[in-house]
Every structure is written in C-alpha cells, then in structure tokens.
Amino acid sequence: MTADGERRYLLERIDDAAVVQLYADGFERLPQGQRVLVWHLCQAAIAGRDIYLDQRCRDGVALRDLLEETLLALGAVGAGWEAGARTAGVDDAGIAALARVRRYAKLLWLHSGPYHHLTARKFVLDLAPAAFAALVARAEQRGARLPRQGGESTAALLERLAATLFDPAHEPMVTCKSPPPGHDIVTASAANLYGPDVTLADLAGFRERHALNSRVTRAADGTLVEEPWRAGFDHLVPPGRYAREIARIVGHLEAAIPHATPKLARSLGALIRWYKTGEEADFREYCIAWIADDDSPVDTVNGFIETYLDPRGVKGAWEGIVSIDDPGKMAQIRAFAEHAQWFEDRMPFDPRFRKPQVKGISAKAIQVVLETGDSGPMTPIGINLPNPQDIREQYGSKSVSLGNVVEAHEKAATPAARGEFCGDDAEAERAKRWKPLCDALTTNMHEVIGHASGRSAPGLTGDPAGHLKEHYSTLEEARADLVALCFIGDPKLQELGLVDDPATVQRTEYEGYTRNALTQLNRVKEGDQLEEDHMRNRQLIVRWLQENTAAIAVEQRAQPDGSNKTYWRVIDVAAWHAGACRLLAEVQRIKSEGDYAAGAALVERHGVKFDPALRDEIVARFRAHDLPACTGFVQPELVPIRDDSGAVIDARITYPCDLETQMLRFSGRLPAPA
C-alpha cells in the first residue's frame, strides 16, 4: 500500500518499460479446494519458464543464470544493494558496473531474454566486457555457480556468450519477417526454433510431424530432423527436447486434477497426454476438451500455443496462464458471445465467408493469478483460443478478457500521453471519459466476435495459416480488430445495454486507434520497420485508411522552437467506418481463400515500413514527458499451507511489489514467500 492507503501499481521504470504490480481480487473467496487447485496450476506455470527463455534465445537460460548468480554472490540484490556489494568487496568502479548489470538483468527478466518483447530488437549490456568479466570472477570467488558446459572454463563461458551480451549486430532480431538482403525469414531470426544452418528453402519440402511443438535442426548426416518438445510416454514414446521441464509441469498438473471440476479435470488429462506424446491428435483433443470447459471457476492455459515468435508462424511459444472468474466484469463479454450469430450475420464481408451457424463460443472475464512464458511478465489483455481454424468452425472457441490486467494498466497510466497526442481539448476530454469503455468493448469484440468469426472458402484445403505463412498473424489480428472497429458504433451495443451514446463511443475509439498507430512508433527506437504482428496490424489499418479514405488528416503544427509536431486527426467518422468495413471485407477474403500474394502485398505496403524522422519526433515527445513505451507485470504469489505430512491443504495470496525478488524466487535462487 502507498502512504495514503492506496494500492501500489507503478513500482519502477526500467528504460522504456513500466513495472506494475498485478492484483487478483477474489482469490480469497474461492473454496479451499479451489485455492489448492490454483496453487498447483501456478506451480505448473512456473515450471515451464525456462522453455520460453530457450525458445527466444539459445543463450537465454545461460544468460539468466550467469546474471542472477553474479548479482546474488556480490550482494547486489534488493533496495540496499550497494551496501551489500561493498560488503562483498566491490569498489566504486565495480558498483557503477553492477548498476549496469542490474539494469540489463531487469530488462532480461521483463522481456524473457535479450530481445524486446514488442519490437523484437536486441538490447545489449552497456558495459565493457573486461569490467563484466571482473565482476563474474569476483562472484565466482564468492561461490557463484556459473552455467558452464562440461569442462568449460569461465573465460570460455564468457567468450561463448560475448556476442549475445555485447554485440548489437549479432543476431539483432528475434523474429524478422522482412529480412535484409542475403537472408530469409528463418536465417534472419534469432529465435531458437530452428538449427543455425537451417534455411527457409530447406523447410519447403520437409514434412513436420510435430509442426507446433518441435525444433527443426540437422542430423549428423546433414538431413533435417525434428526435436519434438515432449516428456515421453512409458517405453513407447522417447523423451524429447524440454523433457525435464515438461515432466515437472506434468507432475503439477497431475496433482491439480483431484481438486478440479470434471470438465477441467478432463481438459488437464488431455493436456498431460499431449505433453507426454507430443502428437498433434492429442493436442487437438486437448483443444476440444478445453473449449468444452465453459463453467469451471478456475482455468489455465499451459503449452505451446501462439506462433508469433516463429517467423514462419508455425512453432508454438510456451506459455502458462492461471486465472479465476471475475463475475463483476462478466456481463459485457458474455453479451457478445450470446449474440455472436447476430454479428456474424451482419459481417461486412462476402456471405460465403460467414458462418451459417456459430458454434461453441464461450466468453469470460477473468482475474489473472499468474502469467509466465509468452504471456508474462509482458501480458496480453484478451485471449481467444484455440487457433486451428477447423476446430474453431466445428467446435467453437473460448474468449477471455483479462480484467485485472486492464485495470492495472489504467491505474498505472498517466494522462500526459493522451494530452500530448490529442488534436484538441475536446478529443482529450473524450479520451479521458470514454477510452476505458472503448478499450473494454474493442478488446471483447476483437476476441469474441472477431477471431471467432468467418470461415474458409469451400475447397480451401488446410488451415489458412498454412497458406498465408509469415503474414497470417498480422492479417488475423487486423481482421479481429476490424470486426470490433466496424461494430463499435452500432446501435446493437446500445440495445444490449453496453453503451449509452454509440456515436461518441465510436468517435472516441477511432481517434484512439488512430493515435495508437502513431504513438506505437515510440517503441521502435531504431530502424525503419515493424516486426511485431499487433504493431503491424494497427499500422496497416490506419495507413490503409489514410491512403484510401478521407477519414484521417495528417497535421503539422509549428512549435515556438522551430520544430513541428505531427497529429493524426479523425475528420470524418463515417468515412473511417466505411473504410474499415471495406478493408475487413478484403482481409476476410484473403484469409478465406488463402490468398498469399494479396495478403503479402497488403502487409508489406501498409504494415511494415515507417518514416524514421516521424519516429524520432514521437520518441522525443515521449521523452519530454518521461512516458513508458511498454509495461511488464509483477505477478501475485501464492503461499502454500501444508499439513503435518507436507501436503498442500490451502494457499494464501501475496503481492511482492518487487520484480527482482520475484524473478529470483521463480528461478529458485531465493526462497518462496513464507
């Protein structure tokens, strides 16, 4: 709590990232058995963190271990870290060097590796290699357990990690879908999903049995082989990559089942089988069972799920989410689910691509208890799963709105950015009053009636993702956004009791969405292209509207110092809406027909490149107000209550308000809270 009795949200700033505490109200009100269930599911989510670190960077786990061991051995942890380091014999120069190591470690924790979570660009340790080596040597003298391989010396360890630590030109992008000359999207991407000598051309004729959950590399004879991510199953299925971590996940999931509802228990059982076998058929059974569980008050997502990390859009990044229902925020999202057919029947795209019967859409507002891997500390605000199109069409999907994540964003935010980029006081006042409602509406429509809408054209074989390849995720996010943008001003929302003034809400959302496409450039401090799919999606929509409608005006306003400030103003709401409907019709056609050429042209023309001079202006304006570009969350932590035999019989929730302590606890280097 703060001095005036309020909750602490904004904890610290690390470069352009805000660190915010996440709260999970309602955990204490769960029945005792469900609290135990949540504890086991959280342990499963923590057990898989190293998988994602390794997926994002082949040096990710070693870097994390090296940094944490060095900081702990030198006493450089916590609020009084300087005094602790001096006690460990670190001099003034070493203290200054340690400050830079601490900064780098915090960035590594927030972004789950040495690549920015949103921009995909690498960040490096701003310290001379010799100064870092001196700290490591001192830490080793004080008992640091360094992540050496085999008989590797400390010098060899540091040499092995040097390029990743210090060279910004070495593997500069974790995911690169617009590669520089001489590279393809696989060789230009540092994500550890393919062997270092595997090219996109090599994969063209290679059949992946475990497409979602495997790493493709070369065998000793030069042929391509899959390294499936699985625990193994008796003597029938051998263990694969990440078998140790997955076995720990499975152990916690098995311990959770006795406390679960029958539907959740069935879903967890299917998940366990997939983790053991790694087979696609078992993954599909898990997806179907997870969709069918629409009433358990506790839920989890755990596995290789989203494909944004993979430049090909094939391999699933590992994530773990544990949540509880948020009844107070349930009405809005469920209204969209209950009326999904009404919206589907009025989608502004070819009726051939509409679903004649929307199936199995469930929707919830939730409170996140824990997010790890691809979902944390940088977290989404809404989820719609599963991803396979045929499962969506036949069985449906589940949409969730992460209510406490949205609330924490709002509580930690400052109005300065809104005032800086709004075109006038009236726009700023609309944003202040209506934007929280707009954000909730668009997020819920994006997830519930956006991702769940539409169907493939008759005769299209395979999933549309396989046809649209590296551009699928950008186009799918654009499609879901456009559904929300097309319906945000519809009188149906007033009929459902969700808004009182549809016209004002529509204008406010269009203004905010347009500003977002401009202000997101603050995240990309170098270069002239976007890589992250959600950022590409937003720019694609706004840039297309600028080029094809009269909805948006670009204004340059002279400043007293001789500079100009750029504003993107919505000047015609009707044209904005009509343009969004036209664009949605085309994006849906591209998806339904699997039209790679048209999809690639749309993304590459409108979603990738930007003006560096405009970006520099936006960065300067953010810097003038000291505004963050992204947010990472410190998660709630559960403290187990055990009986005399050591079995967990209950759990209570705590809020650490400290990123460093939480990360060291998660990796087992500090004890869990008592």
Explain how this protein is built.
The chain has 674 residues and is an alpha+beta fold. It has 26 helices and 14 strands. The chain has helices spanning 32-47, 49-56, 60-73, 81-87, 92-111, 129-141, 154-166, 200-203, 243-256, 262-277, 280-292, 330-338, 340-345, 389-395, 403-412, 416-421, 425-450, 464-468, 472-487, 491-495, 502-519, 533-548, 573-593, 596-606, 612-625, 659-666, and strands at residues 10-14, 17-21, 214-218, 224-228, 298-304, 318-325, 361-373, 382-385, 397-402, 552-558, 564-570, 630-634, 637-642, 648-654. The strands form five sheets. Strands 5-6-7-9-8 form a five-stranded mixed β-sheet. It is globular, with a radius of gyration of 25 Å.
